[in-house]
Amino acid sequence: MRTFEFQSPRSSLVGSGVSARLGELFKKLDCRAVLIVTDAGVERAGLLKAAQRGLEDAGVAWQVFNRVEADPAEAIILEAVLHARQARVDGVLGLGGGSSMDVAKLVALLALGQEQLSDIYGVGNIKGKRLPLILAPTTAGTGSEVTPISIVTTGEGEKKGVVSPVLIPDWAVLDAELTIGLPPHVTAATGIDAMVHAIEAFTSKRLKNPVSDSLAKEGLSLLAANIHEACRNGGNIDARQNMLLGAMLAGMAFSNAPVAAVHALAYPVGARFHVPHGLSNSLVLPAVMRFNNQAAQDQYATLAEIVTPGMTGSSAEKAGSLVRRLEALPRELGLQTRLRDVGIAEGDLRQLSEDAMKQTRLLVNNPREVTYEDALAIYAEVL
Q1: Is the CB of residue 192 less than 8 Å from the CB of residue 330?
Q2: Beta strands in the chain (DSSP E)
Q3: d(CA 168, CA 9)
Q4: Which of 76, 90, 121, 297 could pair with 72 as two cysteines, CB 3.0-4.6 Å apart?
Q5: 272-330: per-residue pLDDT in tens?
């Protein structure tokens, strides 16, 4: 066995209603004043209330920054950092979707004033420390609650990542009650996003290891077995909790065996056309898998048996079945399946391909090399 490194959060708390214990967790981290980083929709839905009561009961003061938007831009992050400094907080809670958790990570780091956002893009460029950080997702998708990654929209059509183990939180808190009101189409898109994390981690060309493989397979199993029920019956607390756990396991997998071409081609779709990240991944996934099949067929065959238990046949047959199953899944769940469904025209494909080729941090992980012409062909296939 070759040498490998594996990173994960120090602690996780999983269970229905556990967000009420957030005050207790921050008290253990010696925090007296916490900034809750979220978006306005999460606050309007009342999803902060249990956390706020728990903080008050523990004697921990709190303030809310609720201006996070999807695909957060640098300006939003810097505004949140200024809020944290002015409030003199000594802890940060990210409670929301992937964007809120990504912003919370950077607020916990930058509030101390030791780093500048412009200096830390890329891998391993964080030099300083951060404030105590707890992340609680309200969607079962991004896995951001366990990853060392924060994604920032830096301009039209471009996203950059900040990647460092410093960003891994002290606690990941998975409370299915925070996801009960999630609409079916959001449940579907975020769930497929998590499935993509598991698939890309399992087939990653770089840093793939036995621990990430195990997490990817178990995460994909939970997600595939529960996504239809979670979309059909959003009040099923067990299905919701299984989706959250599956997304977390997939997040731990791709934190260590990084994602690849699906994400590289999805990012420009999200950045330029404001398509939600999970849906962007869902749109390009089948075509990227068909492109990768010659290099990842045996791995796809292994995953096919997880998505469709009891499957038989040759490796090629199983791999082909997996691609068809994942191509059918968005239709079954009521999601758009073509780029034109989200406002993208043929004339946009060259710009999207140019943007995708800038995602070198991701493309290097793909099991098969992707050229500009390859990206253009993949986009054209799903137009």
Answers
A1: yes
A2: 11-14, 33-37, 61-65, 91-96, 122-123, 133-137, 149-155, 158-163, 171-174
A3: 6
A4: 76
A5: 998 999 999 999 999 999 999 999 999 999 999 999 998 889 999 999 999 999 999 99
pLDDT in tens, 119-137: 999 989 999 999 999 999 9
Distances (CA, A) of 267 to 164, 341, 353: 20, 17, 11
- Both tokens assigned to 351: 């710009």
Report the DSSP beta bridge partners of residue 171. 11, 134
DSSP-derived pairing of the beta strands 149-155 and 158-163: antiparallel
The type of residue at 277 is H
* pTM (global) more than 0.70: yes
DSSP per-residue codes, 282-325: HHHHHHHHHHHHHHHHHHHHHHHHHHSTT--S-HHHHHHHHHHH
Q: Is the pLDDT of residue 377 over 70?
A: yes
Residue partners of 298: CB distance under 8 A and separation at least 6: 315, 319
d(CA 208, CA 281): 21
What pLDDT digit, counting tens, does each position of 12-61 carry? 999 999 999 999 999 999 999 999 999 999 999 999 999 999 999 999 99
Task: Give the tokens for residue 334.
Answer: 């009521």
Residue 155 has pLDDT above 80, yes or no: no
Residue 305 Cα distances to 57, 71, 239, 328, angstroms: 47, 34, 21, 17
Regarding beta strands 11-14 and 171-174, do their DSSP bridges make them parallel or antiparallel, or are they unpaired?
parallel
The number of beta carbons lying within 10 Å of the beta carbon of residue 317 is 13
Residues near 273 by Cβ (< 8 Å), separated by ≥ 6? 342, 343, 344, 348
CA distances to 14, 164, 178, 248 from 25, in Å: 13, 23, 18, 19
Closest listed residue to residue 92, CA positions, set 53, 58, 130, 42: 130
The CA distance from 38 to 45, in Å, is: 12
CB 158 within 8 A of CB 271: yes
